[in-house]
Amino acid sequence: xxxxxxxxxxxxxxxxxxxxxxxxxxxxxxxxxxxxxxxxxxxxxxxxxxxxxxxxxxxxxxxxxxxxxxxxxxxxxxxxxxxxxxxxxxxxxxxxxxxxxxxxxxxxxxxxxxxxxxxxxxxxxxxxxxxxxxxxxxxxxxxxxxxxxxxxxxxxxxxxxxxxxxxxxxxxxxxxxxxxxxxxxxxxxxxxxxxxxxxxxxxxxxxxxxxxxxxxxxxxxxxxxxxxxxxxxxxxxxxxxxxxxxxxxxxxxxxxxxxxxxxxxxxxxxxxxxxxxxxxxxxxxxxxxxxxxxxxx
Amino acid sequence: xxxxxxxxxxxxxxxxxxxxxxxxxxxxxxxxxxxxxxxxxxxxxxxxxxxxxxxxxxxxxxxxxxxxxxxxxxxxxxxxxxxxxxxxxxxxxxxxxxxxxxxxxxxxxxxxxxxxxxx
Lengths: 297, 119
Hints:
The complex is a heterodimer of chains A (about 300) and B (about 120).
Chain A (H helix, E strand, L loop, with lengths): L4 H11 L5 H25 L5 H12 L2 H14 L4 H8 L2 H6 L5 H33 L6 H27 L16 H10 L1 H44 L5 E4 L2 E4 L5 H34 L3
Antiparallel strand pairs in A: 1-2
Chain B lengths: L3 H27 L4 E2 H12 L10 H10 L3 E6 L7 E6 L1 H26 L2
Antiparallel strand pairs in B: 1-3, 2-3
Helix pairs in contact in B: 1-3, 1-4
């Protein structure tokens, strides 16, 4: 029994393992578009149907993940692979190394690492204030509603962080709040909200985010300024005729002689390219980590 | 022992392979406005009644393959609720091809009918 559209998509992705990545992407987009539209259709026509029954019926009509996967594989087998795939294979290591600048994931990760600093401060402050207020006011009658409101806000922030992670790091994250069971009394629902283990994980994520955000921000700023100054300093030196690129040891300043300038520019560029690879790698790691902490299994 | 259910399923799948393209082209030939996958599936459900001939999920790969051979065109548009939708539209080449395919289908149908009846 499949409980959510996200779960269906994950199963479909697993079934399509080994297929062309574009096929997988198409299959996932098609399934998501169809299932959401179909689910909305059922909800409109038969509002009394429970969420799970509606989803079950919709999936029954759409086809189970393995049926859908086999339909895509069949068509993929019959149509020759796109040109793009062959191009990719013939590219040399060097081209692939510098192609990072055309990779939206690297730029997304760079942006994420900058934003994470601000987010981290906000999340940390919110989590610390919320937890301490909830705990210390627990002896009063209004302590409980406050704690519940705070937990709801954590849910909201986690969803928001998930959207940012998906947009910038390309990791599929939930698009809607967690599936809540219909027809359960609100007291039961409250109990479910308070006892959910996910709350703890989300709070931890919010606390850690300050450390990660600070680390990411310093790494990005250091690497970018270092590599950019390597590239720009010889040009500045040539224009201003002042020693810019040099080292000071004791009282003596050492400068590179002009023939070395191009080497410095190239070194800066290579460092920048390598940094972009590093950003992309960190972005992927962070995406996995976010998925672990913000999504229910 | 013959597993007739599995064999029937396989037979159905093999028949669907070609027919799905014909049906999708015809449906898109008749509509005035571009349609998205769920709309097409709903329309086919209306035609087929209770007997669903193929899973709705199997329509999408056929739509992609018709598009990549130039018989259909598609564009993605944002939707009010949920993810953006891909709208499909038949191309002039698609219409020409459909005329030929309908001819093939007619011949095939009468051939199969006669062979099955044995008259």
